[in-house]
From TrEMBL:
One of the GO biological process terms: guanine salvage
Keyword tRNA processing listed: no
Family membership: Belongs to the purine/pyrimidine phosphoribosyltransferase family.
Origin species: Lactobacillus selangorensis
Name of the protein described by the UniProt record: Hypoxanthine phosphoribosyltransferase
């Protein structure tokens, strides 16, 4: 374990099992629906690549990068698109893949946006759900793990752009951000 990590929350094996469980369920629910699986960059990238390998059905993938305005000081829920989709969602069955749902602002914005673009259906699959911090009325349809209100890194998730390459998810030692 890296010295910056206080404890491991989910091991490589836990993450593999959760991708298998969700992938199996999604393969049933999206059989013959040719879903457009949207990875929300950058945090969801590792989860998304593991998840689609467990989906034994025809599907397409695309990527979107968004960032929240104001670093949490503004509660407008306004989100900026850094990279838009290449694919049209019009009349498509869309599955949004997220790393973690926190306040719900990002997903609330994305859902609204994809609705205006007239997707046929929009569902959310998130690796982690931090229910305690929710401020928007957003509910994920597929959830890997419920997590406590702690800052987690690894398996795609970062602190100051680091730790994304850890193969597990861990809780960062508070002194790492307290020293900044
Ligand atoms: P909202 O608040 O819009 O935010 O639901 C979701 C995004 O916030 C980031 N986030 C985290 N990133 N460890 C991280 O590395 C965390 O514990 C954490 N909590 C929220 C993340 O980018 C997510 O997509
Ligand atoms: Mg994210």
């Amino acid at each position: 374990m890296k010295p910056d990590i206080e404890r491991v929350l989910f091991s490589e094996e836990d993450l593999h099992k959760v991708a298998q469980r969700l992938g199996k369920q999604l393969s049933v629910d999206y059989a013959d629906k040719n879903p457009l699986v949207i990875c929300v960059l950058k945090g969801a990238i590792l989860f998304m690549t593991d998840l689609v390998r467990e989906m034994d059905i025809p599907l397409e993938i695309d990527f979107m990068d968004v960032s929240s305005y104001g670093d949490g000081t503004v509660s407008s829920g306004e989100v900026r698109i850094l990279k838009d989709l290449d694919t049209s969602v019009f009349q498509r069955n869309v599955l949004i893949v997220e790393d973690i749902v926190d306040t719900g602002r990002t997903l609330s914005y994305l859902m609204k946006l994809l609705k205006t673009r007239e997707a046929k259906s929009i569902k959310i699959c998130t690796l982690m759900d931090k229910q305690d911090r929710r401020v928007m009325n957003v509910k994920a349809d597929y959830i890997g793990f419920e997590v406590p209100n702690e800052f987690v890194v690894g398996y795609g998730l970062d602190y100051a752009q680091h730790y994304r390459n850890l193969p597990y998810i861990g809780v960062l030692k508070p002194e790492i951000y307290e020293n900044k």
